[in-house]
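Case study.
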Amino acid sequence: MPLFFYALPCSAVFFEGLLLWRLSRDRVWTRYPHLTVFVVFDFLCNAILFPIHRYRPDWFAELYWRIASISLFLRFLVNWEFFRGVFPRRSTLHDIAWKMLLTVELGALPVIVVLSWTQASSAQYLYQYFSPVVEQYFCLAQAILLLTPATVAWYYRVLLGRNLRGLCFGFGVYLLVRSMSFASLQVFRGFVPYWRLLTPMTFIGMIAVWLWAFWEYAPSPEQASLGDDQYSQWKTEWQHLWGRTMALLRRGI
Amino acid sequence: MVGIIVTFLVAVWGLCLLVVFSWRHDGTDKYPNDNQAHALVAGISAVFLPPLDAIVGNDDYRKLRTRPELKSVRQMFWRDRRRIVLLWLGKLQKDVHTLWKFRRFLVRNGLLVSFREEAGVVFAALVALLFLKVVRVAVFIFGPFALHGALGNARLLVERLSTWGIAPLARVPAARKAEIEQKWQQLLAMGIRTG
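After joint prediction, the assembly is written out as follows.
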């Protein structure tokens, strides 16, 4: 592998490490737990891939695509983080944004499903588990999920704060460029070398934007007004939910 | 192929939106409000102007038309009336914007509204703005006396929007109402983007 292609995963891991360091300062991660889970997962998996590539190269492809598949679903956590960050408590705005999200998704999701169903992948299967078409439309659906609350927030002039603004911008650009690059893969025959470069670079770009955004804790005014008691209430609810889930799982097993 | 075109269109549209969202993020207005000094709660000023007939009534114009020797006066009268009507329509447009902003301000401040109500207000405001723009162009082309009915409808649209827009305010207690009005006036005075 050329040195340049080593530089890309190395810089991704480096930026993710820096981002985790910033998130761990002043316990910012407790305010953005879903985002932290996504970053921790990607950081650990990317870091593990280095020794795998060195010592067990036969495992590499299998593991790489498995991680990519899980990461695809974990991106919904970032969507949720953005929504709950912009509308942190039950209010009129929260309800309107939620209904707007449902309306848009009810309209857009069937269209996306039909389009992805009818579109055959002209590119070879790059992913082991699903076609690039799935990735293309997943990115599109996640982008719509992100843009809908962002539009509601913009319409009502809800101030986002540096953290959420960076989160939205970085993630939005990443999803949309990724979706376009996967679509280009279907149309332009000679796009594969550029795609190989563009895909990791958009990810690194997103992490760099997030690093800028989370360099200091700057939440939205609404989020900042939430007291610690609200967070401890969430924590209790979460622990209760977790306990019930584990009990159900144990009973099932 | 349709899917790929849709993907590109949505992606470009989304990227444009992201740029717009990232623009002017601090909530300050580029241009301070010019009607802050005498701002009403919801800025409904132009609809309370003198009766419509006083602005677009064509009795005087018809009298002038019967006198060919007063052609230049008639033309001047026509131009002046057109300028006044355009100015009035501009004020109505400004009112719609202010009402819309005020409505968003109310919702942002936690006043109870339903999703359907909100969608209705957005639709009504968009229709009103579009109608006013079309009427302005028509008045510019055909003159101030040709669209008497349309001008009346424009006024009605804005009045209806005004009633809908400030309706949630009627449902709050007086103390809270006073607080909201004060906050709104403060925002206007500070030149902060209000909606």
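Observations recorded in class. The CA atoms of residues 95 and 188 of chain B lie 14 Å apart. Chain B is about 70% helix and 0% strand. We will return to this complex in the next lecture.
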